[in-house]
Here is the input.
Amino acid sequence: MKRFILNIVCSLFCLGVMAQANPAGGMTVNCGTWITLCATPHEDYHFVEWSDGSTDSLRQIEVLADATYIAYFAENCVDLPDLPVVTPYDWIIMLNMTKVHELGFYFRAEDVSWYRVVGEPDKKGDPDGDDVVVGTGYYLTLDKNLWGTGDYYAQIHTTLDSPVTLCSDILRSVLVHFAGSDQNHMLALMPNATRMGGQLKLVGLNPNEETTLQVYTSSGQLVNTFTASGEPTYVFQAAYVSGCYHVRVVSPTVDTVLKYIVYAR
Here is the structure.
């Protein structure tokens, strides 16, 4: 935020009267004089407000005492991108700092807050939003019991690194969808952590659709395929090797991925 300061001296002896004021520092006028203040921003900036709270860039004031008026200007921050993220490991969401720096954005870890979406994602910077802050820093670690699944994004107070203009604004990352975030179909694996060969139950299926379940290892290897139809629940066995597994659930109206964990005996 940049500012322009105007100091006005109220003089009982000054003979000259200035009707238009846009000086680079100060001015002296007769007490009781009406003057016009005009806050004109430079290119790539816009007027925000005066120090007394007025949001009129062009205004008239009556000078009755010495006074100081400060005009505040902010940079025009338009078309700011949604910052990219990566998920290098299960349960970790991380800002892709390499790509972020390539876009020209630099910020500290303490400037980053991670949010879990409640209902619809809040608008950027909405003070009355209901999304929940779940962490700070460059990355977010989700709870390994998978209860923390849902939709997440990072919100960042940052500056654009430019030799010409510093652009201060709130940035956001792309929205990240994790298992359990599908609010339309409410599919769930019960339990989502089990022993080798344990029984898993997929609930929330549409019994009028044929659904395919494809089970993958965390490295992307397909280990099993199942087909369910006619029932809202499908029971199948967990893998016999410990690790994290991804279950892709596909039907005419669903295409989502759930996860479960197999613990060693």
User: Anything to note?
Assistant: The CA atoms of residues 5 and 70 lie 4 Å apart. Residues 97-102 form the longest helix (6 residues).
